[in-house]
Amino acid sequence: MSCGLHIHALSWSPEQRRRHEEAHLLRDITLDAARGEFVGLIGPNGSGKTSLLRCAFRFSKPLAGSVALDQNDVWGAAPRWAAQRIAVLLQELPDDFGLTVEQIARMGRTPHKHLLDGDTAEDAAIVAAALRDVDMWHARERAFATLSGGEKQRTLLARALAQQPSVLMLDEPTNHLDLRHQIDLLTLVKRQKLTTLATIHDLNLAAAFCDRLYVIASGAIVAHGTPEQVLSAAMLRDVFEVEAIVDRHPVSSRPRITLIHPI
Ligand SMILES: Nc1ncnc2c1ncn2[C@@H]1O[C@H](COP(=O)(O)OP(=O)(O)OP(=O)(O)O)[C@@H](O)[C@H]1O
Ligand SMILES: [Mg+2]
Q: Where do runs of H (alpha helix) occur along the chain?
């Protein structure tokens, strides 16, 4: 097995569903992201994207199958090992922490420290670089609670980058962002050259930024490959229940999706 993220034959269900012995919510999921690869996970609402990320970032324990990061079993490793290597940007913004922007970004260093360790000059430099990267350095003293949705999202990305993870897991990272900041954020993430697994609802953004895509429907992977291979009118009809035209973006020549109407 090579470096990167490897999810193999993973199944998972919430407690309630297990009790009723229904089919698993996530079924036999196999997904790979090679080191440095930007992989997108796309699928309709409720298809299991967030649930799969939770299994991968060591929040929901899979009932079967495995998650490996750089050839180590994520669920067999110590929680601290995983916390140092997996950075997560969640779909829902957390509640007010009562902290400043800089304090939030500094939290990214926590998994690398012991209980009584103070911040070193190196920590401060890493945090400053992350805040500059997301264009929030000027606002470092602002209270997180007073930020706009987009500014919060960028601050949380700074926290993830300050963690210097091996893999970045992003759940709808462009939520709350205007057009310019959607592109800025994904460009910034891509520039890190980190192994990245991101759920993205905007399929044109997914086509523009992802090296490969996995399509999930009702808890199972139904297609995967390059955006060109995956984003077809037939897939959009079957999985997303929309009639769409797929052609090429005139500048990037990546697939371009134009919605016509729901089916
Ligand atoms: N802990 C849980 N208990 C009960 N149901 C759950 C639990 N976690 C997820 N589900 C259900 O599983 C399904 C998949 O949820 P999930 O959040 O993974 O979807 P998603 O693909 O991320 O959707 P969205 O695009 O809306 O974010 C949903 O129907 C959800 O209600
Ligand atoms: Mg979700």
A: 15-19, 49-56, 79-85, 101-106, 121-133, 149-162, 179-191, 203-209, 227-230, 233-240
Q: Where are the domains of the chain?
A: 4-262
Write phi, then psi, for 129 (nearest 5 degrees).
Answer: -65, -40
How far does the centroid of ligand 2 lie from the alpha carbon of residue 73, in Å? 24
49 lines ligand 1 (CB under 6 A): yes
- Ligand 1 pocket residue status of 42, Cβ below 6 Å: no
Specify the pLDDT at position 1.
66
Determine whether the shortest distance from the Cβ of 50 to ligand 1 is under 6 A: yes
- pLDDT of 146: 92
CA of 262 to the centre of ligand 1 (A): 22
Instruction: Provide the CATH number for the domain formed by 4-262 in this structure.
Output: 3.40.50.300
Confirm if 27 and 55 have CB atoms less than 8 A apart. no
Question: Per residue in 1-23, pLDDT tens?
Answer: 689 999 999 999 998 877 777 78
